[in-house]
Amino acid sequence: EALGPQEYTAMKIRVVEWSDQAAAALAKFDALKGKTVYLVAATLRPETMYGQTNCFVGTEINYGIYNVNEKEAFLITERAARNMAYQKIFEKEGNVEKLAEINGKLLVGTKIHSPSSVFPTIYVLPMDNVLATKGTGVVTSVPSDSPDDYATLQDLKKKCEYYNVKPEWVDFEPIPVIETPTYGNLIAPTLCKMKKINSQKDRVQLAEAKEIAYKEGFYQGTMCYGEYKGYKVQDAKNKIKDDLISKGEAFVYNE
Ligand code: A2H
Fold first, then answer.
1. In a domain, 114, yes or no
2. Is the Cβ atom of 130 under 6 angstroms away from ligand 1?
3. 59 C-beta closer than 6 A to ligand 1
4. Residue range of the domain that includes 83
5. Looking at the predicted structure, is the pLDDT value of residue 135 above 60?
6. Distance between the two ends of the chain, CA-based, in angstroms?
């Protein structure tokens, strides 16, 4: 855990088509008409965003959809909305304006678009360990570089029915984005295999894997995809973040 304020890159992930349950639950909220809704995910690894394969929400978390400006609304936790209002991310100053609310469980299966991902459309999927008290309560998923994301997807692929996930929503493989000398170009799957991590419930081994993946990726990693292919991650990270921000695909969010 960081002690001081943590700076995140907040990724704007556009809703393309609500799941049937989400569409039914949101139909009564007239204020959403004509708005483009984005799930907003806080990440510490903007350089990995090419490798996004899906987005995770907590099935026990209640989300709000908050007014940003005339055209846009963000789907995040109330806590994140208050922080964003304080950071002047919303056009109107003062109280946050909640346009709608929805439980995370109903969002699963929603079709979304994250411009930097190699996949044109991806899906909202469930994750057990999403904290309502961190970031926006929405986690963008990069199974090539995040052991948590990879282990969660292994659970979902193995037990589609249990998790209420259609097989086609998880029908993809991790995309190599970063190469490290010791762990190759798919560090998260490699570490999960080495540490015999079978599930998102293997918290102790996952914490170790996460630590290694984070350090190796940053200090030893070289980009193997995208505009900064061949650059060291240390040099590419802020450039990629700045590019995402200048293209309007992301913004800085602190907490
Ligand atoms: B990271 P820190 Cl590729 N609950 O983004 C649980 N996890 C959350 C969260 C929440 N509410 N909000 C954000 N996160 C995740 C990418 C990534 C991340 C990679 C590798 C490692 C990694 C893709 N997922 O994080 O406690 C988000 O996942 C390892 C630390 O504030 C975010 O960055 O340090 C990270 O945890 C923030 O965690």
1. yes
2. yes
3. no
4. 7-143+163-173+231-254
5. yes
6. 12
- Centre of ligand 1 from the C-alpha of residue 43, in Å: 5
Q: Provide the residue type at 171 as one letter.
A: D
Residue 34 CA to ligand 1 centre (angstroms): 31
pLDDT in tens, 1-60: 556 789 999 999 999 999 999 999 999 999 999 999 999 999 999 999 999 999 999 999
CATH label of the domain that carries residue 24: 3.90.740.10
Q: Which among 39, 45, 131 is the best mutation to test ligand 1's pocket, defined by most ligand atoms within 8 Å of the CB? A: 45
Q: How far apart are CA 33 and CA 161, in angstroms?
A: 33
Q: Is residue 68 part of a domain?
A: yes
> How many folded domains does the chain comprise?
1
Rounded distance, CA 25 to CA 103, Å? 9
Check: complex ipTM more than 0.90: yes
Ligand 1 pocket member 42 (CB < 6 A): yes
Which mutation among 43, 47, 127, 133 tests ligand 1's pocket best, with the greatest number of atoms within 8 A of CB? 43
Cβ proximity of 143 and 151 under 8 Å = no
Evaluate: CB of 187 within 6 angstroms of ligand 1: no
